[in-house]
Amino acid sequence: MPTVITPLARTGSPLAPGEPPAPPDAGGAGALAEVGIPPVLHFEHGLPGFPEARAFALEPLGPALAPFARLQSLDQPGLGFTVVPPGLLFPDYRVEVDEDWASRLGLRAAEDAEVLVLVTLRPGQAPTANLLGPLVVHRRTGQAGQVVQLDSGYGVAEPLVGASA
Questions:
Q1: What H or E segment, with its residue span, contains residue 32?
Q2: Following CA atoms 11, 12, 18, 19 in sequence, which dihedral angle do they give, to the nearest 10 degrees?
Q3: What digits encode the pLDDT tens for the residues 7-29?
Q4: Positive or negative CA dihedral for 112, 69, 87, 144?
Q5: How far is 81 from 57, CA to CA, in rounded Å?
Q6: Can you give the pTM of this predicted structure?
Q7: Ramachandran assignment for 77, one of left (phi > 0), alpha (psi -120 to 50 degrees), beta (any other)
Q8: For residue 158, with 0-12 CB atoms within 10 Å meaning exposed, 13-18 middle and 19 or more buried, which class applies?
Q9: Kind of pairing between the strands at 113-120 and 128-129
Q10: Confidence category of residue 30, pLDDT binned at 50, 70, 90
Q11: Is the separation of the CB atoms in 69 and 16 below 8 Å?
């Protein structure tokens, strides 16, 4: 039976439930660890299209851009992504994690997981979020994977609620 994760339950920053992220100059990786998510996320097989990029730092973008964060590759310094917890922007969004993924990530309960979605920013266009392939992160170990939501009806370029070009 799949585990269903409801990101709405954690509507704050990806760095801690209900807490704003620390500004970039206010504690760095140590501050991230203190608020409940490891400062480094590990993707066992990389991300689709980037199999060699396995370790990523989750970096706050500062209070003005909360709850958005930067997922910066530690293996390929020029590679990074903007991410956001989807609960605030997509209140009805649900993520299913099958038994295989739960085992691979070491998830025993939905509360063990944090969900992030990749955000695409293009000049002159509204930003979009990839709801088809959310990133599921074990909140204590940092083990992570892109868990595709097959047959969900979600897309890879869903407009952010309230966003404009």
A1: helix 28-34
A2: 180
A3: 744 444 443 333 333 333 333 44
A4: negative
A5: 10
A6: 0.81
A7: alpha
A8: middle
A9: antiparallel
A10: very low
A11: no
